[in-house]
Amino acid sequence: MHSRYVRTVVDAAVGGQNTVIKLTVRRFFCNDGTCPKTTFAEQVPQLTFRYGRSTLQLRRLREHVALALAGRAGARLTEAMAVGVSRDSMLRLVRALPDPQVGPVRVLGVDDFALKKGNVYGTVLVDVETGQAIDVLPERTADALVTWLQAHESIEVICRDRGGCYSEGATRGAPAAIQVADRWHLWSNFGKACENAVRRLRSAWVPPAPEPTPVHVPDAPNTVETVRIRELHAAVHALGDKGVKVGRIALELRIDRKTARKYLHAAVPEELIRGAIATRRTVLDDHAQFLARRWSEGCDSGEKLHAELAERGITVSERTVRRFLNRMRADAAPTTKPPIPKVREVTTLVLTRPSALSEDDTTLAEQLRDRCPDLDVVFGLAEAFGEMLVDRTGKDNLEDWAKSATTSGVTELANFAAGLGKDWDAVLAGLSLPWSSGVIEGHVNRIKMLKRQMFGRAKPDLLRKRVLLAN
């Protein structure tokens, strides 16, 4: 083997500027013809690396940017830093990074995430004790989880949701491990059961309807003409009370003498109003009692009442009938309506700790419980389940609670309790042990952010690198 000195040019980032460093290093040549390495160059520690066209420090800088921002955004930032490379080069840097070393894992978290929502799902594995993602599987199947678990025999606890594939995979891959059902999913499923029960019982807990307002024929509408008649009647009587003669009143108010005399003879303006608008209030005045009776019988359709009036030989337009009914409806409407809470609002009352309710909400909850005995049962079971979940007393109370829910008579909660029995050991562990899947849900949210950052087109291998390395 012999060597000779060669000059190597590498780029470096110094103070945000591109700097060219010219090095003189040795290149070695192998004299053995059977050796696959015919030549290789000497490397400078902490400065150069094989096949590199930049310093080690610059490459690490670009790797950090690529992990944080991916291709397009990372390329724009490196361009602004005067160390720019293309977006494809940024992605190649990420793919070339080695996987992080995974030590013994005692508490494993498992959850799925969407690679293509509704069609393709992957699996993220998290060390619950450290909060770090340790692997990403490109599929959501029991076999994939079994294969991974068999290669990692240190697993003692597996936190998972209540999905069937993860339950099967954990049972087959790590039969000795304790499976823990996620408390958030338990509470979410219980909340849906309570909402369905509240919706079914709605007719029993809605406030009673207000007393109907007595039906009467509406008064004449307060039109511009009626206002004018009242004002003129008041002006005529004001002058008449002062002793002014009819002729003088007509002259001052610029009205006819007969009009002035008519207004003086009317004691109240209603006498003039009835005569003035008799032809304008339509012929329904003579049939108002019939309309009021039909209204009280529950007939409030203008089309139907118009047809009934036509059968009685009354010629009137349907539009006039509707206007008359609108006046009756306005008179019969109650001034205040008792509030009717929505199903979601009542469900919120059911699922909220009683000590956290406001005074008004507490009063409303008591009223609802008094009106509907079944809803009172839902309130009681929800309070007991919430305390068991928060205080993690499932080992002592879950069995009794499940029996109470089964015999409660509330179908939705009985079905929920039956569902718990299908995954009883994991549910019992979830309501007793301190482990939960909260940290896993955080990683699922982070994966969604990484996918959006890469416009939703990240291939599984690239997404896996960023999930594991960009913690």
Description of the molecule:
Helices cover 54% and strands 13% of the residues. The chain has helices spanning 56-80, 87-96, 142-150, 164-173, 183-200, 202-205, 224-241, 246-253, 257-265, 269-276, 288-296, 302-311, 318-332, 343-351, 359-371, 373-391, 394-406, 411-422, 424-430, 438-453, 460-469; strands spanning 2-14, 17-29, 39-41, 107-116, 120-127, 132-137, 157-160, 178-181. The strands form two sheets. It has a five-stranded mixed sheet, with helices on both faces. The radius of gyration is 42 Å and the shape is elongated.
Keywords:
471 residues; alpha/beta; 5-stranded mixed β-sheet; 3-stranded antiparallel β-sheet; 21 helices; 8 strands; 54% helix; elongated
Give me the Rg, rounded: 42 Å
- Spans of at least 5 consecutive residues whose pLDDT stays below 50 are none
Spatial sequence of strands, sheet with the most strands: 6-5-4-7-8
Helix/sheet category: alpha/beta
The shape is elongated
Strand/helix succession: EEEHHEEEHEHEHHHHHHHHHHHHHHHHH
Distance between the termini: 46 Å
In which range does the helix fraction lie? Answer: 40-55%
Q: What is the number of E strands?
A: 8
Number of helices: 21
The main β sheet shows up as: 5 strands, mixed
